């Protein structure tokens, strides 16, 4: 008797439809990231002296920054010629095409504006928000799995997925012909574990956490894993086949370096901020000043 050495994946991306209205797994999981994240962030903010109203405001900034950044990131990083010649297509998000690196840039800019508006320490805001961003990222990658997209390369590992609904033709072969690495699941699980780590650190040590520690851990760990898992993925666009590293890896490198620099600075000179996020005079954590 032969043992099944792969998992057949044939999930319908659409949960149900009513007339022209279609509810899809990706959209549901994307929205759940914000809904659950808002509840967790509310707990964090209230515990640190902020209000639930602050969470409503930052959630709005996050939604705008994520959607605009992810969409522009995809259009500019992966297919600029097409979208610049068809600019109306940039607005058609329902057709697909969101880039996590673009979302990162969009979130960073949105939260910078939020911090200035609310007179909060920017790094304090980032240290808290990355906790829920990690959870949201894990759910979005599950959405990619439900869409049978962003697939891995062919493999014979026993946990390989046969993506029956993926009709891409890669190197002359239909993607659904071979079992492949479930790279969406790899990323989802890794980012969920990162969420657990960040939340645990905040929950246990929040009164002693130096500014930038959680953000530095998040950026370094997230994009280091992203860099590595890209070796197991199929390239998303044709021009990546001519590159030594694909676009996901190229865009990850500066973020990894930025995270390492932040962690080194935290290690060399940890700086505290007030629990409610307002800026303190810079001094080492534990100093009597």
UniProtKB/TrEMBL annotation:
Compartments, as annotated in UniProt: Cell membrane
Gene Ontology CC annotations of this record: plasma membrane
Database matches in InterPro entries: Lgt (IPR001640)
E.C. code: 2.5.1.145
Membrane topology, as annotated: Multi-pass membrane protein
Keywords tagged on the record: Cell membrane, Lipoprotein, Membrane, Transferase, Transmembrane, Transmembrane helix
Single biological process term from Gene Ontology: lipoprotein biosynthetic process
ATP-binding among keywords: no
Ranges that cross the membrane: 25-46, 58-78, 90-113, 185-202, 209-229, 249-267
Pathway: Protein modification; lipoprotein biosynthesis (diacylglyceryl transfer)
GO molecular function terms listed in the Swiss-Prot or TrEMBL record: phosphatidylglycerol-prolipoprotein diacylglyceryl transferase activity
EC class: transferase
Domain of life, per lineage: Bacteria
Binding sites annotated in the UniProt record for a 1,2-diacyl-sn-glycero-3-phospho-(1'-sn-glycerol): 141
Entry's family note: Belongs to the Lgt family.
Protein function: Catalyzes the transfer of the diacylglyceryl group from phosphatidylglycerol to the sulfhydryl group of the N-terminal cysteine of a prolipoprotein, the first step in the formation of mature lipoproteins.
NCBIfam families: lgt
HAMAP family per the UniProt record, alphabetical: Lgt (MF_01147)
The protein's name: Phosphatidylglycerol--prolipoprotein diacylglyceryl transferase
Native source organism of the sequence: Pontibacter qinzhouensis
């Amino acid at each position: 008797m032969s043992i099944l050495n792969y998992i057949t994946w044939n999930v319908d991306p659409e949960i149900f439809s009513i007339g022209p209205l279609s509810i899809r797994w990706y959209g549901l999981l994307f929205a759940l990231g914000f809904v659950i994240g808002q509840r967790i962030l509310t707990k964090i903010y209230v515990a640190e002296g902020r209000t639930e109203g602050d969470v409503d405001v930052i959630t709005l900034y996050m939604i705008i920054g994520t959607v605009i950044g992810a969409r522009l990131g995809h259009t500019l990083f992966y297919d600029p010629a097409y979208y610049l010649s068809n600019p109306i297509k940039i607005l058609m998000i329902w057709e697909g095409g969101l880039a996590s690196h673009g979302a990162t840039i969009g979130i960073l800019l949105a939260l910078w504006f939020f911090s200035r508006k609310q007179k909060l320490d920017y790094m304090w805001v980032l240290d808290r928000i990355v906790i829920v961003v990690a959870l949201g990222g894990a759910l979005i990658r599950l959405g990619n799995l439900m869409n049978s997209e962003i697939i891995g390369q062919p493999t014979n590992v026993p946990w390989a997925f046969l993506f029956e609904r993926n009709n891409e033709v890669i190197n002359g072969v239909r993607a659904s012909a071979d079992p492949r690495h479930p790279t969406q699941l790899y990323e989802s699980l890794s980012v969920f574990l990162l969420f657990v780590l960040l939340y645990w650190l905040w929950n246990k040590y929040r009164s002693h956490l130096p500014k930038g520690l959680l953000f530095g851990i998040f950026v370094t760990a997230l994009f280091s894993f992203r860099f590595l898992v890209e070796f197991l993925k199929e390239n998303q666009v044709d021009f990546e086949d001519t590159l030594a590293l694909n676009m996901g890896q190229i865009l990850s490198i500066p973020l990894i370096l930025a995270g390492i620099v932040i962690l080194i600075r935290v290690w060399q000179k940890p700086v505290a901020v007030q629990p409610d996020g307002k800026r303190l005079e810079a001094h080492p954590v534990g100093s009597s000043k």
